[in-house]
Specification:
With 311 residues, the chain is α/β, with parallel strands linked by helices. The protein is built from 12 helices and 8 strands. It has an 8-stranded parallel beta sheet with strand order 1-8-7-6-5-4-3-2. α9 runs antiparallel to α10. It is globular, with a radius of gyration of 19 Å. It starts with 8 loop residues before the first strand and ends in a 10-residue tail after the last helix.
Length: 311
C-alpha cells in the first residue's frame, strides 16, 4: 500500500551489510530484515545515508530494494535523493514498481533561501509524479539547509504527495510544537512526523506530538518501547528505559562514518551482521573505541537484558 500520513511507530533506517571485500552481504541483509520484524517495527527505510546509498551503483540499489521489499510485510521507504531529477524519478518509479510504499527526498546543500527550498521540493514532487508519496527529510546538521516551520508548511501545502516529515533538526523540539500548532489551527494539513538523530531526543520528541522514530539505532526495540510507553501515558517508564540507553546512544550518534562504524560493529556483535565492513571511503573503529563500546554495552545490559551480547 502507498505510504500515507497515517504512518506511525518506528521505521528504522537500515544499514547495508557488506562482506569485507565490499560485496553486499545478502544473508546478513535477510537476517536484518527478519530481526527488525521480530522486534515489532512498523516499516523500514533503505538506501539512505546510513545505508551508504551513495556507495552503491544503480543495479545494486535496486537489488537491495527488491530483496528487502520481497522479504518483509512492512511498508518500505526508499531513499531516492540524487543530483538530478531525472535520476531521482527513474529510481523512484523503479522501486515503486517492485513494491516500495514511498520514497525519501533530502535537499541538496546548495539551497539557501526559503524560495529555493520550496522550489526544489515543488520540482522534486513534479518529477516523482502524483502517484509517488514522499518523505521530506529535514536534517540541517548534515545537509546545511535550514527549513523553518513556515517553509515546511509551504512545502506540505504545495505538494499533496508529501505525507511525512523526517524531523532531524537539532535543537528541534519547538519546531515540532510549531508544526503541530499549524495543524491544530488548520493552516497546515496533518502529516506524519517521525524523528531521526539516532533517537537522541526521542524521550521528549514523543511528548511533543511526533508519531514515532525514523532512525538507525542499534537497539530499535528500545525505540519501539519508548514510543509505545509514551502513547500509553507511562511517562516515567518511558524515560527510565530511554535513560538506560542514553550513554551508548550518545556514543553511537557521533557524526559521519564513525557513528556508522559503531552501529555496524554492534550489529555484528548482536549476530545480525556477519561483518562490520563499510565501503570506502570509511572509518574503522580503533581498538580503544571498541573497548569503549564494549564498556557501554556491558553497562546497558545491566538494566536492559535485551542488550546482552554473546561473548
Amino acid at each position: 500500500m502507498p505510504l500515507t500520513s497515517d504512518i506511525c511507530g518506528v521505521v528504522p533506517i537500515a544499514p547495508t551489510p557488506f562482506h569485507p571485500d565490499g560485496r553486499i552481504d545478502e544473508t546478513s541483509l535477510d537476517r536484518m530484515v527478519d530481526y527488525f520484524e521480530g522486534v515489532g517495527v512498523d516499516g523500514l527505510t533503505i538506501l539512505g545515508q546510513l545505508g551508504e546509498a551513495g556507495k552503491l551503483d544503480h543495479a545494486e540499489g535496486i537489488a537491495v530494494a527488491r530483496r528487502v521489499i520481497g522479504r518483509t510485510t512492512r511498508p518500505v521507504i526508499v531513499g531516492v535523493t540524487a543530483p538530478g531529477f531525472a535520476a531521482m524519478r527513474s529510481l523512484a518509479h523503479e522501486v515503486m514498481e517492485i513494491g516500495a510504499a514511498g520514497v525519501m527526498v533530502a535537499p541538496p546543500n546548495s539551497l539557501r533561501t526559503d524560495d529555493q527550498v520550496a522550489g526544489y521540493f515543488r520540482n522534486a514532487a513534479e518529477a516523482l509524479g502524483p502517484d509517488v508519496p514522499f518523505v521530506l527529510q529535514d536534517y540541517p546538521l548534515t545537509f546545511s539547509v535550514v527549513m523553518t516551520p513556515s517553509v515546511i508548511r509551504r512545502i506540505v501545502t504545495e505538494n499533496p504527495t508529501c505525507v511525512m516529515l523526517k524531523h532531524e533538526d537539532w535543537p528541534g523540539l519547538e519546531k515540532i510544537t510549531t508544526l503541530r500548532g499549524y495543524e491544530a489551527e488548520g493552516s497546515m494539513r496533518r502529516i506524519a512526523i517521525l524523528v531521526g538523530n539516532g533517537g537522541l531526543f526521542l524521550d521528549f520528541e514523543a511528548e511533543r506530538g511526533v508519531d514515532g522514530a525514523n532512525t538507525g539505532y542499534a537497539f530499535p526495540e528500545m525505540l519501539v518501547d519508548v514510543v509505545r510507553l509514551t502513547k500509553a501515558g507511562r511517562r516515567d517508564e518511558a524515560h527510565d528505559l530511554f535513560d538506560a540507553h542514553l550513554p551508548y546512544l550518545r556514543y553511537e550518534q557521533q557524526q559521519g562514518p564513525l557513528g556508522l562504524a559503531v552501529r555496524k560493529y554492534v550489529f555484528m556483535r548482536r549476530g545480525i551482521f556477519a561483518s562490520d565492513a563499510q565501503r570506502k571511503p570509511s572509518q574503522a573503529l580503533s581498538a580503544v573505541a571498541k573497548e569503549e563500546v564494549e564498556y557501554l554495552l556491558a553497562r546497558l545490559a545491566r538494566t536492559d537484558e535485551r542488550a546482552r551480547l554473546p561473548r
